[in-house]
Amino acid sequence: MIRFLLPTVALLAACDARPAREASPDQGVAANPAEHVRTEPGASAQASMRFAASRAAADAGEFATSFQVLAQRDIVARIEIALPDLASEGQSEGQSEGQSDVHFLHFELLNPDGVMHSSKWLAISSASDAPASIRHPLFDRELPVQRVESVQGLARLYMKIPVAGTNFTRYRLEGQFSAALYLGTSDPQLLFSEPLVMQL
Predict the structure, then answer these.
(1) Cβ(108)–Cβ(116) under 8 Å?
(2) How many CB atoms lie within 10 A of CB 175?
(3) At 69, is the secondary structure helix, strand, or coil?
(4) Residue 81 has what pLDDT?
(5) Which CATH superfamily is domain 47-199 in?
(6) Which of 197, 23, 196 is nearest to 107 (CA)?
(7) 77 alpha-carbon distance from chain centroid
(8) Which end of the chain is more exposed for a tag (fewer CB within 10 A), N or C?
(9) What is the pLDDT of residues 43-68, one digit of tens each?
(10) Where is pLDDT greater, at 99 or 8?
């Protein structure tokens, strides 16, 4: 059973429509709404995801739950995860001792019909000796690992969600999307699930 966790981030790019759970590390993202608080059974009460129009807006605490498709270049997601939750993951199969502090997060955005709109993988770690990159255990692709600092006991990271130049603007997509964040790979744990509203 493969699972990785801790704060350091790795992104992989873009894809606009694939069934959930089949996303490769190359899929892109586009998401929305503001804060989270685990709205589905099994979601972690120690994780949150909030959305803002820019990094500056996120730093200023200016979060939103809906966005204008044609007015946004990107949406910035601020993710916070309790470090104890990450630490509980332990070392995964195939992981060397030096890599056991690296964990995978998977962001998924489903369209209003429940079909995968986009997806992104992140590799995170709070360990000072974390490797610069790590191979994804399911897709055999190298992901960069980003160091994540603890903020009041939470691992905080930011993720950019492209809007301009994607299917959002190409096809004028609107409606209530669903944003979800998972921890782990082969047996992922749902950390966050929240509706996301895109408007024209």
Answers:
(1) yes
(2) 13
(3) helix
(4) 87
(5) Macroglobulin (MG2) domain (2.60.40.1930)
(6) 23
(7) 8
(8) N
(9) 555 678 999 999 999 999 999 989 99
(10) 99
Q: Report pLDDT for 88.
A: 54
> What mean pLDDT is predicted for residues 109-115?
94
Mean pLDDT on 140-167: 89
Where do the domains of the chain lie? Answer: 47-199
Question: On the CB side of 108, how many CA atoms lie within 13 Å of its CA?
Answer: 26
Closest to 71 measured CA to CA, from 169, 145, 176, 171: 169
Residues 6+ apart with CB under 8 A from 190: 38, 40, 42, 43, 44, 180, 181, 182
Q: Are 133 and 121 in contact (CB under 8 A)?
A: no
How far, in Å, CA of 19 to CA of 120, rounded?
13
Give how far the C-alpha of residue 166 lies from the chain's centroid of Cα atoms, to the nearest Å: 18
Tokens 């996120």 sit on residue: 58
